[in-house]
Amino acid sequence: MNFDFTEDQHEIKRTARDLLTKRSGLEQVREAAESEAYDESLFTELRELGWTGIAIDEQYGGAGLGVVELMILCEELGYALAASPFLSNALGGLLIEHAGIDDQRAKWLPGIASGEATATVAFASGGSSAVVPDADGAAVIVLIDGDAATLVARADAQVESVSTIDPTRRYASVTASGGEALPGDVAGALARAEVALSAEMVGIAQRTQEMAIEYAKERKQFDTPIGAFQAVSHRCAQMLFDTEGARSATYFGGWAADADESQLALGSALAKAAASEAALSVTASSIQVHGGIGFTWEADVHWFFKRAQLDAAMLGGTGQQRARVTRLTAASLAAAGGA
Amino acid sequence: MDLTFNESESAFRDELRAWIKANHPGEEPAGEDEGYAFRRDWQRQLYEAGWAAVHWPTEYGGRDATLVEAAIFNEELARARAPFPANVLGLLLAGPTLMIWGDDEQKQRYLDPIMSGDEIWCQGFSEPEAGSDLASLKSKAVRDGDDWLITGQKVWTSGAQYSKWCMLVARTDFDAPKHKGLTYFILDMEQEGVEVRPLRQITGDPEFNELFLENARVPAANVLGGEGNGWTVALTTLMNERAGLAFGLQVGMKVALDELTEELAASGKLDDPMIADELGALHIKCEILRLTAYRGLTATMKYGQPGPEGSLTKWMWSQGNQELMQFATKALGPQSLAGGSNWGRSMLRSRGNSIEGGTTEVLKNIIAERVLGLPRKK
């Protein structure tokens, strides 16, 4: 039993934090959000560092590391709220690698690993999806409809930019007829994607918790830092409660993906449900702690709140995950009782 | 990261599991006294097989179990629905406190009977006017030759009616600042100056007691950790109170949650999406509690202390268990509140979860100040 990262994994986390602190500070996030355009040089730098291929098999040009390492990067990118197509590309890559066949992998994964021909993924119905992250710039789009996943080349799909409440990421609507099925383990591939997405939300919750605490220490009313008032400090304690719970669930999901697939369905459902709820509640609570300032465009906390809304809604909301946990638990109890 | 048990942890678990299976005492009898006698016999059985205090060092008769193995011990007992040993406060609190603060004579005298259950211990900390603000306690100890005479009132002393000894904190210096004037005593409960009155709680059971002390006599040799050092010694006890139990509590919650899931499935209520949703949310909370407890345990083993997550498990458990019990009676309907159903009683009992062993409000204060570094409350 060792619920901690290895020294190498800690090193990845530190390196990512350092780089993103320099390259994707809140000023850069604001610039990307207000201009509704990514800073291309940031993604280029991440590509050149090999981040985009971190969890992709070496034979396709990746680093061949696991979901845990990818999860660490996603958490840090969420912490920085980096404006880049990194997450969509990584999620698309997980679907193709784990639900695709060799031909599909050979065709798409090298571009995804190098970041030169990116992927994305979204839930769809009847070949269309209203909000797909980074679809406009992608080379390949994976649409998941129930238990089936379909791979569509960007050129074969109708893609139209849509603006959402989250200007830190680009979104588009996608309509496609045809495409080719990903015939493998769609559920397992999706579960991995859910873990990576959850990690971004853990990073978002962590950062907005820290912003609230810092503000509560500095801001004075009634001649007292507001963090000394229990109404405020207990709210901050609740942020820690929510963030750490989501972190426990997400790290468990990452571990299951790499080490024990029999627990992946449960782990990914725990992760997505807990991280979504944490990201929503902690970002909202952080706005409240910031008071009137927190409601202004000038404060940065709203970028995180907005990203959290879109992330929580992606790849199935909390209700679906809870229903899944109940189904999985009831089934395993019935199996144990019947045995 | 490796969330499986290693070879020696697995071997420990398998050996324990086999032993519990072969020696399971069966269902606990109804009634406070009968139940207690049953758990005391069970402790004697554990003691004779060397399982009573796995987390104690071998020099005191324990197994020197790692934190993971101690967690496994609690998990396995709960999973097998075997009772916890009767002298739980002695094993978890008094023993470890004696090991740190006791002199050789005290360790020699008290530790073994704690393990065997021959001498039961209770905890005399809280008072009617000193709950969360423990350091304001007023029980008064005055010197009488080689003895101390203690007068005052304690409350919430579970197991006092069965106890030989009490971990008692009293004020020996009324002029010192409130944290400085306290002393930690080992009080003999079998004497005239000690009166135990059962305290009936909202379930109707007298799980706790009030303790009335009228010139109760304690020899000076029974001071633990030195005169005026009572607050520091008491903190040792309180730290152990918060650390040890999370895993057993988590499994207890998981067992109840699984029972509820089976009852709801059998009655077809699981097909109601609102019920499935709430039940799923509770399973998620219960798993997160387990995972967070293991994260804290890893941090303690690697870095000597838990990280920020370590302060959260008691809060996670009490909130989760209360939600579970309230949801159970809501989902099962009025028959769960009628005689013959345990759910109603468990639901009532769960209201104590967020109060006992540190209220949630005090835990939040501790987290805010010590973990988050927020300024002290006004």
Can you tag this structure with a few keywords?
heterodimer; A: 339 residues; alpha+beta; Butyryl-CoA Dehydrogenase, subunit A, domain 3; four-stranded mixed sheet; three-stranded antiparallel sheet; globular; B: 378 residues; Butyryl-Coa Dehydrogenase, subunit A, domain 1; Butyryl-CoA Dehydrogenase, subunit A, domain 2; 8 strands
State the CATH superfamily name of one domain in chain A.
Butyryl-CoA Dehydrogenase, subunit A, domain 3
Class of one domain in chain A, according to the CATH hierarchy? Answer: Mainly Alpha
Average pLDDT over all residues of chain A: 97
**Sheet with most strands of chain B:** 4 strands, mixed
CATH-defined architecture of the largest domain in chain B: Up-down Bundle
**Under CATH, the topology of the largest domain in chain B is which?**
Butyryl-CoA Dehydrogenase, subunit A, domain 3
CATH superfamily of the largest domain in chain B: Butyryl-CoA Dehydrogenase, subunit A, domain 3
Helix coverage percent of residues of chain B? 40-55%
Q: Main sheet of chain A: which strands, in order across? A: 1-3-4-7
**Quaternary state, please?**
heterodimer
Q: Report the uncertain regions of chain B.
A: none
- What gap, in angstroms, lies between the N and C termini of chain A? 28 Å
Instruction: Tell me the radius of gyration of chain B.
Output: 21 Å
C-alpha-based Rg of chain A, rounded = 20 Å
> Would you report the number of β strands of chain B?
8
Give the overall pLDDT of chain B as a whole number: 93
Backbone structural class of chain A = alpha+beta
Beta-strand content estimate of chain B: 5-15%
Total discrete domains of chain B: 3
